[in-house]
Amino acid sequence: MTTATTPVLPVPAVRVGRVPWQVKFLLLAGIWGSSFLLMKLGLRSLAPLQIAGLRILAGGSTLLLLLRLTKGSLPRGRAIWGHLMVTGFFLGTLPFSLFAASEERVSSALAGIGNATTPLATVLFSLLLLPGERLPGRKLAAVLAGFVGVLVILQPWQAVGRPDPVGFAMTLVAGASYGLGWTYVRRNLSKADLGGLAMPTAQLLASSAQIVLVLLGWWLLHRETVSAPWSVRPDATSGSPLWPLVAVLALGVVGTGLAYTLQFDVVRAAGATVGSTVTYLIPVVSVVLGVALLHERLAWPQVLGAGVVLASAVVIGLPARRRARAVPPVERPGESPVERSAPEAAAG
Q: Which is more confidently placed, 15 or 107?
């Protein structure tokens, strides 16, 4: 997204292919929107942390391969890698694990809706952590409206028939984790030289180291029922874990790896404002796929609340009004024009 929700993702100097950017835009919306469906399918044979682990390791391997093919290099320096360990946790390890765990309790459609709260959290964390950050009145109203939408989804006035509060809370914490992670990037990595795919690759490598330790800890606590960290159970539908494994591998390779290259191409061809709007299509795609393929159902308060949250996210993502068109944007020290125009990548 733009303004307060913009992370630093410098665009690599690689020529855009012949495929029209509109096609890549739709592919990106479909890939990221389908991630919640793929997690739900993965849960048929894998535990949530296994899904997060396989997703991160597959995505990290894919990006590392792409980085080598484009002759890029990983960042150097202990300080930068220290910050990357933090962003790797808040932009990978934590949200990927929580979204997978949440879908044991709520539908994939509802998990996708929870992902749409990321811009709200980003604005709040920006106010708390970024010196001099200001919140225009319309964005304050959008944040408040977004929280009202969350309450409508949760239906606290209902004793029965409402979404599982723990499951939906997991999606909200996961969305907030993205917001905190991107704010941390702006605060601590905006001046770092992380061109091309270096930053997402490094973040996923940091997440890979973390998730391996988390998986080992999880397995030690479940050794009586799980023979090894990579043990999977048969799919109750087909009797084989093959398709759940394929779903999670697709989530990692395509949804967490190749999608970044599509995003960069869209931004280069159409600009950051257009590129950032893909975020608004993610919950729409997740709901459509959940209803059409998994026969999930959303009650009318969830649909209404989702509409309020999504509208709030759109308002927050609108560029700030400029008083004079002739005045060029001010370039902050250490910030390149590419860094100012890079979009947010916050996919479930």
A: 107
Distance between CA atoms of residues 320 and 133, nearest Å: 13
**DSSP conformation class of 5:** G
For 83-142, write each residue's pLDDT tens digit: 999 999 999 999 999 999 999 999 999 999 999 898 889 889 988 998 888 878 888 899
Structural tokens at position 69: 């093919």
- Any long-range contacts for 89-92 (C-beta under 8 Å, 24+ apart)? 89/181, 89/206, 89/207, 89/210, 90/177, 90/178, 90/180, 90/181, 90/184, 91/177, 91/178, 91/181, 91/182, 91/185, 91/203, 91/207, 92/56, 92/203, 92/204, 92/206, 92/207, 92/210, 92/211
Give the side-chain half-sphere CA count within 13 A for 267: 26
Closest by CA position to 298, among listed 133, 86, 113: 113
- Distance (Å, whole) CA 56 – CA 104: 19
Helix (H) or strand (E) holding 273: helix 272-276
Calpha distance 245→33 (Å, rounded): 19
Cα distances from 254 to residues 31, 92, 145, 153, 334, in angstroms, run: 7, 15, 34, 30, 32
pLDDT at residue 323, as a whole number:
53
